[in-house]
Specification:
It is built from 25 helices and 23 strands. The strands form seven sheets. The protein has a ten-stranded mixed β-sheet with strand order 3-1-4-5-8-9-13-12-11-10, with helices on both faces. It is globular and about 75 Å long. Among the domains are: about 240 residues; about 100 residues, no CATH class. α11 packs antiparallel against α23 and α17 packs parallel to α19. It has about 700 residues and is α/β, with parallel strands linked by helices.
């Protein structure tokens, strides 16, 4: 992977003389108190401003401040006019625009496209504090406020909409957010490198239109520049005959799911593609089917989505180009991951770890959730098709040092009001991927696989949990620390590779319940999710129960499941419902699959094709639970115990020829009778996750008679 400039090696901007702000200002009065006549950068966000590294605007703002820039924040502005976007004055360098920590559409709507009644990222959870498609709306208002100020968009909403994408809420393919927002540049993924370099180049007087070479950015162009080689995406991954998958875990040139090499020094090559040398590859652009083509042709949409995912490794990704009318969206390769030293620097900035004082005593649910938690790493190499973490943060794990993490534990202990000695989480996207990496950097930089753990763990992926075990031990030994809990989801197929880790986790870091995510038990949906089979679950469960007993603790697993995922049939959901009943699980809050932009599972949902392999017009068609009734049914199967769901389930069981499951016995799924007043279920999924029924006891082989928290 190419050498890059250290994030903190830039010469600081002259405004460093103003020093560190207690909090980044949200008003002119705060700017006056700091002695500022203007802001160099104004960040606009759909979230409340919480000065904590778990919130993107605080992290980006403090990082720019460390570079010497004066940064102001406009939080949840009134978007109906440009007035609210002028409150900090005209930015000297640029507006930075984000929807917030969540996509605005996911934030505002349930999986059934119903408006949520609350917003976890808003004071007192107030709803309607952000618009639909916030990046587009905010950018347009910024342009109206100061037409000549550059606009930089980023965050997860912009990141996942960087190319033409299926939009679940309008049920159509939309253009890239870049032309729709009329922004000057889009930053995707963890954007620290691109943002810092962009700010310094603009500060030196470089025009934003001339800055076109930053990794992790997308811009608009009228044509491919001279000196570049353009190849068609169909030569990289031909949307034609589906060929059998080679062994994706062989340490040979056939070691990638698409047949491209995983061995050191080899460059991916497909039929019809001329193999370029290293220099040519760095100046090669892959032309995807245009917006108009993918809008009108589901097969080309699935093909383009597959190619995008194959070009996400920073070690070998090439530029992607997609025409939108008369202009191209030009997507530079992903950013080089931050080193441990750089990530430590980012998390070590002078955050107050609190909401801005302007919010007074208001409660912000998202802050309350992470108030005593610590993010120890970034990224995820799981590649789950329904998840946006891999697409946004990448597959390469970026780790903080042990010292940095322990220092933050002490900071929480000493500085955070209300701390009782319990750290709620030492984790990240996945709790136990800390310091796990490919055994060989050359293999890693050449690999184009979609997952390092599906259908089994790659032979090149290290599974040593030793550094994480040592971190746990040192953290809980700190003075004043009573308990370290692990709140992030544990990847149990990795955990079972280290019985010592499972014992450490179960003996010291489970607060009675541990959440894990099988997501389903049937092969059909699991294969489309790129999730492991139930064998790893049962092995982990056995270890969990063994070590809990040895520790003298009564502890329980909380499994999460998704309904209506692509690849799921009614029969699959019935199988899962019977498994849940046989094992005594009664789920309370359940999650119907929500197609999010750019996800592989969303491509399946929209096209009915499988982008996990070469896309073909004659190839595999994926069953899609798309109708409202089917989605309601699949959700009802997960809540088989709710009387409101019994009429629908009885009707369905009869249709499926399984009326034998209707009755009052232990082997029956639903009773034949209906309690008075129990109608069709109207339970909506929770925006903050899934859990077990808080009113019903658990029982059976996999749990006990203890209720969930």
């Amino acid at each position: 992977m190419e050498a890059v400039k250290n994030l903190f090696s830039y010469r600081q901007y002259w405004a460093k003389r103003f020093g560190i702000a207690p909090v980044l200002p949200m008003s002119r009065a705060e700017m006056d108190a700091l002695g500022w006549d203007s802001c160099d950068v104004v960040l606009v966000t759909g979230d409340a401003y919480i000065d904590h590294p778990s919130f993107g605007m605080a992290l980006i703002g403090r990082l720019l401040e460390a570079q010497g820039f004066r940064v102001g924040i406009i939080s949840q502005p009134d978007w109906h006019s440009p007035d609210a976007f002028k409150i900090l004055g005209k930015p000297n360098l640029f507006y930075g625009v984000t929807a917030g920590n969540m996509d605005s559409m996911v934030n505002r709507y349930t999986a059934d496209r119903k408006i949520r009644s609350d917003d976890a990222y808003t004071p007192d959870a107030a709803a309607d504090k952000r618009p639909d498609r916030a990046v587009i709306v905010y950018s347009q208002r910024c342009r109206e406020a100061w037409p000549d100020v550059p606009i930089v968009i980023g965050g997860i909403e912009a990141s996942l909409r960087r190319i033409a994408h299926y939009d679940y809420w309008s049920d159509k393919v939309r253009r890239s957010v870049l032309p729709d927002s009329k922004a000057d540049i889009l930053l995707y993924g963890n954007a620290e490198r691109a943002l810092v370099e962009l700010a310094h180049r603009l500060a030196k007087g470089e025009a934003i239109a001339a800055i076109d070479d930053l990794r992790g950015t997308a811009i608009l162009r009228k044509e491919v520049p001279a000196g570049w080689i353009e190849i068609d995406s169909t030569s990289v991954d031909r949307p034609d005959v589906v060929v059998p998958h080679p062994n994706p875990y062989a340490e040979t040139p056939s070691g990638s799911p698409d047949g491209t090499p995983c061995n050191p020094g080899a460059a991916p090559q497909q039929a019809g593609e001329v193999k370029p040398d290293k220099l040519e590859r760095a100046h090669t652009a892959i032309r995807l089917p245009s917006y108009e083509q993918v809008r009108d042709d589901p097969v080309l949409y699935a093909h383009a989505n597959r190619v995008l995912h194959l070009e996400t490794n920073p070690g070998n990704a090439r530029v992607l180009v997609q025409a939108h009318g008369g202009r191209d969206v030009w997507i530079n390769p992903p950013p080089i991951p931050l080193s441990t030293e750089e990530l430590d620097g980012v998390f070590g900035l002078p955050y107050t770890r609190r909401p801005h004082p302007a919010y007074g005593a208001a409660k912000i649910p998202a802050y309350e959730m992470i108030r005593f938690s610590i993010n120890i790493m970034r990224g995820c190499f799981g590649g789950c098709t329904f998840c946006s973490i891999t697409e946004h943060e990448g597959r390469i794990i970026q780790n903080r040092s042990e010292g940095s993490i322990l220092h933050e534990v002490e900071d929480i202990r000493d500085k955070t009001p209300g701390f009782t000695g319990i750290i709620s989480d030492l984790g990240g996207p996945t709790a136990n991927m800390y310091r796990l990496k490919c055994r060989d950097p050359k293999i890693e930089s050449a690999c184009r696989r979609l997952s390092c753990v599906f259908p089994d763990i790659c032979v090149n992926m290290g599974t040593d949990h030793g550094p994480l075990i040592q971190l746990y031990r040192k953290a809980r030994a700190l003075r004043g620390i009573k308990k370290i809990l692990i709140g992030s989801g544990v990847r149990y197929d990795l955990a079972v590779k280290s019985p010592e880790y499972v014992k450490e986790l179960v003996s010291h870091h489970v607060g009675g319940y541990l959440k894990i995510a099988p997501e389903h038990i049937a092969e059909g949906p699991l294969s489309k999710m790129m999730k492991p089979g139930m064998g790893a679950y049962y092995k982990f469960k056995e270890m969990f129960e063994k070590f809990s007993k040895e520790a003298g603790k009564e502890q329980y697993l909380i499994p999460y499941f998704i309904s209506a995922h692509p690849g799921t049939t009614d029969e699959d959901m019935l199988e899962l419902a019977l498994w849940l009943k046989a094992n005594g699980f009664r789920l309370d809050q359940v999650q119907n699959f929500t197609p999010t932009p750019m996800a592989l599972a969303s491509a399946m949902y929209h096209t009915g094709r499988n982008p996990l392999r070469k896309v073909s017009r004659q190839g595999e068609e994926v069953p899609i639970p798309k109708s409202g009734r089917t989605r309601q049914l699949h959700k009802a199967f997960l809540r088989y115990h709710d009387p409101a769901n019994w009429p629908l389930l009885r009707e369905t069981l009869k249709r499926m020829g399984r009326a034998d499951l209707i009755g009052g016995g232990k082997k029956h799924l639903v009773p034949a009778w209906q309690p008075a007043g129990a109608g069709r279920s109207t339970i909506a999924p929770s925006p903050l996750g899934k859990g077990l029924d808080k009113k019903r006891p658990l029982h059976g082989k996999l749990s006990s008679s203890k209720p969930s928290r």
